[in-house]
Amino acid sequence: MLTDQPLRPARTPNATTAGANHAIVIGAGIGGLASAMRLGAKGWKVTVIDKLDMPGGRGSSISQNGHRFDLGPTIVTVPQVFRELWSACGRDFDADVDLRPMDPFYEIRWPDGSTFTARQSTEAMRAEVARLSPGDLAGYDRFLKDSERRYWFGFEDLGRRSMHRLWDLIKVLPTFGMLRADKSVYAHAAARVKDERLRMALSFHPLFIGGDPFHVTSMYILVSHLEKQFGVHYAMGGVAAIAEAMAKVIEGQGGSLRLKTEVDEIVVEKGVAKGVRLGTGEVMPAALVVSNADAGHTYTRLLRNLPRKRWTDSHVASRRWSMGLFVWYFGTKGTAGRWKDIGHHTILNAPRYQGLCDDIFIKGKLAKDMSLYLHRPSITDPSVAPEGDDTFYALSPVPNLKFDNGVDWDREAEPYRQSVETVLEQYMPGIGETISASLVFTPNQFRDRYLSPFGAAFSIEPRILQSAWFRPHNVSEEAKGLFLCGAGTHPGAGLPGVVASAEVLGKLAPDAPGFTATRSAPDLRLAAE
């Protein structure tokens, strides 16, 4: 199944690193790599440990028959969070990563044949709104203003500082009330526009971070401003190329990556994290430990022998978890230039919107209809496919594995893949005859490959009572010297969110013993190189 996967050379010495300035990061996802970079800039010598054979976590890739499948995130928004991260390490992000702006961002299609093309230009977006529903133009303008206001509060303020103290929450409650954070994303969109297609187009974004648009707080309408202000981008080589560039920065700081290695337990002595125990039994000491593993896995597995005050097994299990994903990665032979109306990003809607979300998030039912996100990176990046061919992935939100009537994916995976192919055939006639590579991920793979509780693709769902202070904190409540980053902690999932979690961690974690931040950015860059 994993043919043509390149073997990686060892990226770390066999000797166990010890010392007062040694830090360990569990998990080489984007949040873990960003945290390692932040710690490296504070003088720590960091070892990043991951069970996969390459950095990136969900942002890694698999190659098959000449096709490179980027497994997870495909859209880069708010690129300044990466530029600021690189700058903190004395480096230039744009010198290391080739980021290309997308225009259009994506196209949304409905079963009745209508479409909505999302672009950065406000006038182009207003023209799309007017084309679909002229009477909703004034409401759309109000929605954009609402979105910008929530962006400055929700992302630039709350999202980039710690929310681990209850007082942090109490201070912002009046603003939450004023901005009607109790309303859902869909309810806010519905209050501004009447056309159901526009309501979907303005409210579906929480699905990209694992949230139900009909229940997630309306703070997340901030994504509309975020896209308008900063655009939507694709990294040449995929997000895996960003992960590789991050790994090189870490190694340039004197850190290392230990891949194909699984952490079995975080070692805690007298309430203080002292290192990790690997699956082999080897103990690696550290003065500071960061977990980029899912927060649920961190507390219920890696700290299973520690009596916990807040994040007990029952408390973790009682959380509402994000949906699962069914992803079909496939390559097609000789199709470059074919299906010209299928661009880099396309969203294919099912006849139902709320009913389908209810099946996924509330009932745990695998519905017969489906909405798909279709990714065609070969339109932009020739390196993902052999010449003349195409590489795709089709993603369908599905229930996670927590429901009592859970889906048996060992039995349902292939029939569901065939259903996905049937839907795609309506938009890309003859696709079934061109398939040259095929790989399927279900919630089972998210559970087993990424150690995600219940196969949830985005950790804990970002509902209002599971956000900010209510999420697992960036500085652990259970053990001193332990920090958390990534999708399951504050501020949440998505590339900007997990990179911001590392920024928050960088503000909370101390400098390495004996480190004085007196070197300038050029000095740091020279040291790294």
Automatic annotation (TrEMBL):
The keyword Flavoprotein applies. The keyword Flavoprotein applies. Keywords: Carotenoid biosynthesis, FAD, Flavoprotein, Oxidoreductase. Its EC number is 1.3.99.28. It comes from the Bacteria. GO terms for molecular function: FAD binding; oxidoreductase activity, acting on the CH-CH group of donors. PROSITE patterns: PHYTOENE_DH (PS00982). It is an enzyme of class 1 (oxidoreductase). This is Phytoene desaturase (neurosporene-forming). It comes from Cereibacter changlensis.
